[in-house]
Design goal:
heterodimer, A: alpha/beta, 4-stranded antiparallel beta sheet, 8 helices, B: about 475 residues, alpha/beta, Aconitase, domain 3, 2 domains, 5-stranded parallel beta sheet
């Protein structure tokens, strides 16, 4: 399956501060009553963005100046908790194409990798510098260079960490592994055969 | 040099090396449910692919199932549609399905072990982060996203990178009134919600040697709350005893061969670990959470932290955010915090032993008038076993509502939800903001007996005092 290589993501950014932002917060469970992922974008961070009566709360994603951002910036252990792919799907459908955080929960990271959303880890100091720059100029163009594992903005740049396997998959356009998995399916069958499950 | 169980299972399940350097890992057993599978089946249809090994794929419905309505159509048309979608997918793709009429339906992590589908030395995946539960049997079991559910359906494998292994030893003697739930809440509070990133947790020590399978499941279930994608206990006679005679367990000569194989998969005595943590069982207290992350926990005798207790700006911000959301007074004792709802159930603590343990203390007590209390068995089989022992009657006589099987108020995708800023004493696994169905609802995690104590007193309480728990309750 031919996929587009993802060598870099360029666009405006928004910073949503906080540690341990879980996938329930990214997409509350009640919005998972669906049989497709279509339309999940509008429920992104729904309860963090809305009062109980549906009126908007103060939240970076509600601010006019950050509308249209495609790079999401956050804190430690981003995407922890539930394995729901609805979380990265909601981010993607709300227009986000890359996430920069201090660290990522593993299942969330894996889900993003399979969807072709680069997740880049940066130090808290670099994230503070970047968030201050976005705050000062919401129109600032931010580039997440996947190939070089660096983030560029204005005159500044810093190194990020992207695990080799994810970096290679993104840059080579093989971030969705299904084609390769199917190519090797007979090897998997051989492996399964050896496990000796008794059919019932 | 010896190998750990994780390394052995990883090696025996590595089918191929992928071009990006990851491993193509065989998944022996794929568990699916109604919430994270419909899109995956949709992707299979788009690709024109069958389920490659329907005989290794097992489905049930749990997340969205009402616990007080048993006939379809359900009041919620979206829930009804999702269940019908799984009915259709299981039928069309030939997958084994423990549906609502089977008498075997329940939370996927209760059903797998109950049926003997969960076996030592295997890999198990499910589109649910609490798949780690199955590690109690010495399986490498982990949650995956929906696109990976597609991968497993289509190829019985996923792309994965190898984890490191952290051994966690718990040695000593647990004090009376301290349960498996307290052990895992204690571990998470010690190591943090992200402490396990990059690790598989191997739990051991005399405490785990002596734990029942259900206690081991409670601990492994919540490894994900500590950031570790999977956790396991080496298989032993306790494991084999549990599995013997279950529906999907091997029989006769196959059983003997399986036990022999399962024994060899346990970690070798001389294996090395990437990290080792020692915990004294005597240090574990009946534990509760006070905040909005599972690592924000403390002993029942402890005080809620103050912002100034933290040393970094990020830690201060986390405490401030949690205190504000939970509406707790900084520095105040957690004991005595009023509660409005009590929930006993979930894949963490919704098994027979959980209800049995509570029932022996609850008899003769009454849920406070101010509290709505519900008990939700983890499966139809747990429900039937509880009824057979009269456990349901003890709960209802005490003022609990006894419900049908499902995930219920752990994540509130069904009608069991908190209302407004209600605060719930819960035997489930997550205290995230809004987790129990109301965007401003509040959760205090604890063991089932502590939930019962809170229900009786109407506030967060020490079960040892409420129920006069003596030496006999010690594990």
């Amino acid at each position: 399956m031919a996929l587009d290589p993802i060598k870099s993501v360029q666009g405006r950014a928004v910073y949503v501060p906080g540690s341990d932002i879980d996938t329930d917060r990214i997409i509350p469970a009640r919005f998972m009553k669906c049989v497709t992922f279509d339309g999940l974008g509008e429920y992104l961070f729904f309860d963090a963005r809305h009062q109980e009566d549906g009126t908007p709360k103060e939240h970076p994603l509600n601010e006019e100046r950050y509308q249209g951002a495609s790079v999401f910036v956050s804190g430690v252990n981003f995407g922890c908790g539930s394995s729901r792919e609805h979380a990265p799907q909601a981010l993607y459908r709300a227009g986000f194409r890359a996430v920069i955080a201090e660290s990522f929960a593993e299942i969330f990271f894996g889900n993003c990798a399979t969807l072709g959303i680069p997740c880049a880890t940066a130090t808290s100091e670099d994230i503070a510098t970047l968030s201050a720059a976005i705050e000062a100029d919401p129109q600032l163009e931010v580039t997440v260079d996947v190939e070089k594992a660096r983030v560029f903005f204005g005159d500044a740049n810093f190194t990020v960490h992207i695990p080799d396997t994810a970096q290679d998959a993104l840059v080579s356009g093989r971030w969705d592994p299904i084609a390769e998995l199917l190519e090797n399916a007979e090897k998997v069958d051989v492996c399964l055969e050896k496990m000796g499950f008794v059919s019932t | 040099m010896g190998k750990s169980l994780y390394e052995k299972v990883w090696e025996s399940h590595s089918a191929a090396k992928l071009s990006n350097g990851q491993t193509q890992l065989l998944i022996d057993t794929h568990l699916i449910h109604e919430v994270t599978s419909p899109q995956a089946f949709g992707m299979l249809r788009d690709l024109g692919l069958p389920v490659r090994h329907p005989e290794r794929t097992f489905a049930t419905v749990d997340h969205i199932v009402p616990t007080d309505q048993f006939e379809q159509p359900f009041a919620d048309p979206l829930a009804d549609a999702m269940i019908k979608e799984l009915d259709r997918n299981a039928e069309e793709f030939g997958v084994t399905y423990f549906d609502l009429k089977s008498g075997k339906q329940g939370i996927v992590h209760v059903v797998g072990p109950e049926q003997g589908i969960t076996q030592p030395g295997t890999t198990i995946a499910c589109g649910d982060s609490h798949t780690a539960t199955h590690g109690a049997f010495g399986a490498i079991a982990f949650g995956i996203g929906t696109t990976q559910v597609r991968d497993v359906l289509a190829s019985q494998s996923i792309a994965m990178s190898k984890l490191q292994v952290r051994r966690i030893n718990v040695e000593g003697k647990l004090r009376p009134g301290v349960y498996a739930k307290d052990v895992i809440l204690h571990i998470i509070a010690q190591l943090g919600a992200k402490g396990g990133i990059g690790y598989a947790y191997e739990f051991g020590g005399n405490i785990f040697d002596n734990f029942t399978m259900e206690e081991r499941m409670t601990v492994c279930n919540m490894t994900i709350e500590g950031g570790a994608r999977c956790g396991y206990v080496n298989p032993d006679d306790t494991t084999f005893e549990y599995l013997k005679g279950r529906n999907y367990s091997p029989t006769g000569a196959d059983w003997d061969a399986a036990v022999e194989r399962w024994r060899t998969v346990a970690s070798d005595a001389d294996c090395t670990y990437d990290d080792l943590i020692e915990i004294r069982a005597e240090d574990v207290a009946p534990s509760v959470t006070w905040g909005i992350s599972p690592d924000q926990g403390l002993p029942i005798t402890g005080n809620v932290p103050r912002v100034e207790d933290a040393d970094t700006p990020a830690a201060k911000a986390s405490i401030a955010e949690a205190l504000e959301y939970m509406q707790l007074e900084p520095g105040a004792p957690i004991k005595g915090t009023s509660i409005e709802v009590a929930f006993i159930g979930s894949c963490t603590n919704g098994r027979l032993s959980d209800f049995r343990e509570v029932a022996q203390y609850l008899k003769g007590h009454r849920v406070a008038d101010s509290v709505k209390a519900i008990a939700v068995p983890g499966s139809q089989i747990v429900d039937a076993l509880c009824r057979k022992e009269g456990i349901n009657d003890i709960f209802t006589e005490a003022g609990f509502e006894w419900r049908g099987a499902g995930c219920s108020m752990c994540l509130a995708m069904n009608p069991d939800k908190l209302i407004g800023d209600q605060i719930c004493a819960s035997s489930s696994n997550r205290n995230f903001k809004g987790r129990q169905g109301s965007p401003i609802g509040r959760t205090v995690l604890m063991s089932p007996l502590m939930v019962a104590a809170a229900a009786v007193r109407g506030c967060v309480s020490d079960a040892r005092e409420v129920f006069e728990v003596g030496e006999t309750a010690a594990v």
